Every structure is written in structure tokens, then in C-alpha cells.
Predict the 3D structure of the following.
Amino acid sequence: MEHHNLIMTKGTGRLVRLLCLHGYRQTGVSFREKTGAFRKLLKKHAEFVFITSPVAVPAIDDVQDKDSGCGWWFSRPDDYFKAQDESDCIKGFEESLKAIETCFEESGPFDGILGFSQGAAMLGLLCGLQQQGKLSFSFKFAIFSSAFRSRSTPHQYLYSEKITLPTLHIFGEADQVIDKSMSEELLQYFDEPETLIHAGGHFIPATSAQKPTYLQFLENMSHLCNA
């Protein structure tokens, strides 16, 4: 497990603490690198901690990079995941859940959780578990980027109750990995979700266009967490 903390440099108020869940075939380290601009944008407002899933993804034969990263669960028994898969398989999910639980025990508390792609789908499941009183830890808000609903049958009960947690959902018009429609579909399971739609693809946008939305959401969450 890899944890990376950003130390608060300015401001007198407590930073909101965010646990960050990487995408499929990523690690905490690679996700941290990919979110450099996003973290810089919010460095006066949030502290980011990155965790690596314990579920290693098998290497792809025709890829030079030997580090094929990790995932939060597999949709097929042969250690494969595809967001569109409808299956009975959630191999690795319990191990991932335990790792997040341990992270909360050892490095928490965390005010909120940020998830990207499969990490955002995992975050949706955590929201469902918390809504139904089935988590040993708690968090007060969630930020999703390129999220989708798990199609695995054993996860469906976690969408049965409307999730009342404050949430921000970020997705791109040109996302070729997780189609915008899949992120939009997830919104129905949340009570009054906030959305940020950008023109780009499969990444967390971090330009001046998105900054006001991020800051307003985090400011609101900061008041909630310090209440």
C-alpha cells in the first residue's frame, strides 16, 4: 500500500482529507502522477492520500510496460475486467474492501473519497455500503470521475437504496473508455448529485474552467466536515 501526503503550506483552516482510488491498470503512484495539475489546483484546500489496490492485474503480452497495475475487482474469473461486462464475478472485491478499511484504520480519518474510472465505480459501491450501514468506517462526501455502475450481479443490491451522501460527478463528452452515458446512468442512484461535464476524455480535468466548481464543492464540504 502506498500513501502520499501533501503537506499544507498556506491557509489557517484544516485541509479536507481525500482518499484517492485509482483506475484499472493504475497504482496509487501512477494515479498521483496523473493528477498533478488537479492536486496543484486544489493544494490550498485538500490533502490527497493515494492507495494501491491489492488486486494485481496480469500483464498484457503485447505491452512493453511490465507494471500492468492493479484493479479493484475482476468481472471475469480469468482475472479480466471490462466495465460493460454483465457477470456474476466480483473476484478481488473483498480484498480491495479490506485494504480500504485498513487504510482508514491506519491513515484515517478521511473526510471524503475521490475515485477515477474503476476506482469511481468502487467508490459507488462504498457509498452503497455506507448508505445501508454496512461499512466499518465512514466518509462525508464523494467525488467521482469517469464513473460507472458495476454490472456484476453480486453488487446490484448496493444500488437499491438512494444514496444521500453529497457527491460531485465529473465526466467527459469525449471519453472513449467510459462512455458519458455510463457516467450519466450512475447519477440516478444519488440524491441531488452535482455534475461537472467537460469536453475532454478519460481524465480528471484541471483547468481554470473547472476550478470554481471544485472550489465551491470543497468549500461546502469543508463546512460540512467542520460542523
User: Anything to note?
Assistant: The longest strand covers residues 16-21.
